[in-house]
Fold these 2 entries.
Entry 1:
Amino acid sequence: MLGVAFSIGVLLALAGSTVAHNCVASYHVVSKMLQQLEDSVKPGEPPNPSVLLAMNLAGAPNSSVQNQLLQEIEKEAVKRAQKDMTSGEVALYVLALNSSCKDPRHVQAMGKSIDLISILQEKTDEEVASLVMKGVPKTTLYSVSLDALSLCLTKAGGYQAPSVILAKWVLSPDSHLDVDTRAVAAMAMACAYSHTDLRDVRELLLKALRNVTNGFLDEQEKGHGMIGNIYSTGLALQALQATGKFYAPREWDCAQAFSVVYKHDYQLSMAIAQVLPALAGRSYLDVVSPGCVKTSMYPSLQPSLSPNPGTTGVHKAPTIEVHYSIINKLQGKHFSYTTSVQVPSGSTLLKVLQAAEAEKPKIFSFQTEQTSWGPMVVSIHGLAANSNDRTYWQFLSGGKPLQEGVGTYKPHDGEHIEAIFSTY
Ligand code: B12
């Protein structure tokens, strides 16, 4: 557990309670999540810049884990940024380095030095060119939002064009952007708004920001605290933390939104990393350059010596039956296969896919790739997702898309899961 060095005033006001005070969660909640993030950092695994960013925004003490993560991030950037990273990944690396007071223009590792800002500018220009020529970004509008946000926060050029494009998408009645994308776009547009003098651009950004933030407040009211789903709510809360002036004089009932988040037991470090800044009263907009992170509401949190909870005894779970279909009506030779497998109750969907593959390997073969959200299914029955033609394997239950991936989702007895080759 992280604990102890907490100023008496804040401690008295917050400790022991899970109620939001001025849109800041209790110390208990924040320190538990920080501990979960710390525990997620494993040597030898690809570093996650969102985790470092969240730790810094939540005011984590400068621990050896953070330093180790920072070094891995610098190494990974030098190794992969130019050739293998998407624009959004580079943007997250820039935010993480900035939040650790490191200059992204001079990232040094393994005897080499790279300028991550120029790389980000180049990759953002490619996204903008694709949007202008083809009407879709090279990757996704979520990544373009991260690009614009990151360039704007580092006061580098190249954020205005993507911010204007994002504003137009937000305002277009048929664009249907998901909550996650609107949230990051709102943070990017809020940054661009405060750094531009052009009247037309400011007016457009203002309109888009009012649209997104009021839309979130409406969705929260309808969803009794939830904005989108439990995983998008964190980013929406960050956006609402940072954009108060765009929905004023309307008030935000942050306690209602926080209470939904408190009830959920987030397990994935990526999910925690997106919600934690908001619970600590911060957002990605608090990464400032130069200057790292704006002063925290929380004084430094210090690690205590409490041991990790031990593992409990293993019980043999009863088995459940899950029906599983794979369907391609999109590309090449169409196919549709269904099977039923028995797995121990409480198994993840990944276990179902593995059981199906073990029983009928010629039909239900599949491949995954490790990502920041866990294993992503990238190929089934030899048919691979492809970012150039914007295809992916979508997972549904009862016709509705799952809100979790195969590594987390736990099907129930008799459930029918479909994997459908789709476009995004
Ligand atoms: C864009 C996006 C997608 C795109 C990615 C396309 C691309 N090539 O970029 C597509 C449409 C393919 C996609 C698919 C899915 N997604 Co998605 N996606 C996002 C979104 C909006 C942004 C991700 C991103 O670009 N990050 C920025 C880049 C720089 O970081 P990155 O680490 O390189 O991003 C990669 C991973 O995020 C990965 N990815 C995207 N979604 C998912 C979902 C899972 C479960 C996994 C393991 C990986 C993964 O693809 C990105 C590009 O390679 C996030 C929102 C969020 N809050 O993060 C949801 C989000 C991550 N997705 C989610 C879900 C549920 C899915 C699906 C399971 C939906 C479904 N019912 O099928 C599928 C994955 C199924 C599978 N095959 O395993 C959830 C995950 C929640 C959770 N607890 O696991 C999120 C948080 C949205 C939400 N609020 O519900 N997604």
Entry 2:
Amino acid sequence: MEFINNDIMTYAIQYTQDESELLKSLNKETHQKILQPRMISGHFQGRFLSFVAKLIKPQKILEIGTFTGYATLCLAEGLTKDGEIHTIDINEELVDFQKKYFDQSVFKNQIFPYLGEAKNIIPKLDLKLDLVFIDADKINYPIYLEMVVAKLKKGGVLIADNVLWSGKVLNKQKKSLDSETNSIKLFNELVKKDKRLETVLLPIRDGLMICKKV
Ligand SMILES: C[S@@+](CC[C@H](N)C(=O)[O-])C[C@H]1O[C@@H](n2cnc3c(N)ncnc32)[C@H](O)[C@@H]1O
């Protein structure tokens, strides 16, 4: 499903700050060499993530779902000088690619990548978080929500990608839906009901949920 027509999207990108040369080449190489390149946040969403991070000036960020590291580098732009971004991915084939780009970044010493199942890694992280970006397997979104809200500081911000799931969230027939769609729908309901969170669902790309812990 297309939420905003292509011409409007092209115009919005045209009047959004350009991505850096490093991000441009990461984006290009992801499309040339990596399976399912459309998973990358990309220019427009990346600038949004960077902008939010710069407003928050986080000390500690957690990203669930590193992929090729595009959003990691965008979020890192907002870190305080001694800030850290911790980022988790289960796919070991991406490690060399991520490292190649993290090593070229000015944030290289502030990025802490983890390889493995996010559900197992998050409980072991002794972190009080200012900003969280959930962007991994949709089936575990409700679990990630509970895990990260507990670690989020008051005033901390949670962003989750793909909460419109190509429009499938509009389907009311629970039984005929795939488990990922049901999981995203449950996540959106849990977020909306959660008294610890103030929430806005932004129809940017595939839907970005942005919440503040009150
Ligand atoms: C949509 S991509 C992330 C995109 C990236 N955040 C960006 O903006 O460019 C989702 C990533 O989640 C990872 N992933 C999927 N299931 C996971 C799990 N159970 N634990 C950790 N990572 C997982 C995948 O390997 C994939 O790289």
